[in-house]
Amino acid sequence: MRKNFFLFMTVSIAVMCLLLSSCVTTGGTEQVELFNQETLIAITGSGPVQGGALGDGSLQNPAVYAWIKVPYAAPPVGELMFRAPQDPEIWTEPVDCSSYDITIDDYPAQWDWGLSYFSGENQPIGTLDCLYLNVWRPQTTDTDLPVQMDIHGGSTCNWAGLDSNEWQDYVNDANCIVVAPNYRLGPWGNFSHPALKTGDALDDSGNFAILDQIKVLEWIRDNIKAFGGDPGNVTISGQSSGGQQACMLLHSPLAKELFHKAIISSPSLTSDVAAATIEEGNAAADQILVNLFLYEDNDIDTAEAARGKVDSMSKEEIDSYFRNKFTNDPLLVFTAINKGTPHRPSKSDLYYWGFADGYVVNKSIDWDPSSGNFFPKPMIIGDVEADMYANYPAQTDSGGIEIYNYTYDILYGGEVIYDTYDEAIEALVPMDETTPGGWKNYSVEDFKAKYDIASDACLRSYDIIGVQNPARRAASAPELESKVFAYRQDWGSYADTIVDSGIPYEGFYQFTIGADHSSDLWAMLDWNDIKGPGWFETWTRAFLFVDKNYAGRKDLADKVAVYLGAFLHSTDGTIPKTDDMPVAWEPWTADKEQFLTWSATADKAFLEMNDRAFTGESLRIYLNERIETLPEATDQDKAALKEWVDRNIAASGL
Question: Looking at the 3D structure of the chain, how many domains does it have?
Answer without folding.
Answer: 2
